[in-house]
């Protein structure tokens, strides 16, 4: 459904901290922290996951599943499946 990396990226795109996200979706701060610290797909209570996804969607975040095309026309970022490791000087 949503990975921890997607959650961190979505929050960064919105420019909000974990506390703000928790307030927007009606979850506790420790729940958001646990979700972001997990590996891969976030596991948890279905109700909590739905609240999270709905709050992100209401804020304008489009979650793109593995192998899915984006339906929106705006700009976006996607991590390639075999992303090369960037060195310190690679971003110049």
In short:
With 92 residues, the chain is an all-alpha fold.
Secondary-structure blueprint:
Layout: H1 4-14, H2 18-25, H3 29-37, H4 46-58
Describe this structure in words.
The protein is mainly alpha-helical. The chain is built from 4 helices and no strands. It has helices spanning 4-14, 18-25, 29-37, 46-58. The protein is globular. The model has no long low-confidence stretch (mean pLDDT 85).
Keywords:
0% strand, globular, mainly alpha
Low-confidence stretches: none
Order of helices and strands: HHHH
β-sheet strand percentage: under 5%
Rg, Cα atoms, Å: 14 Å
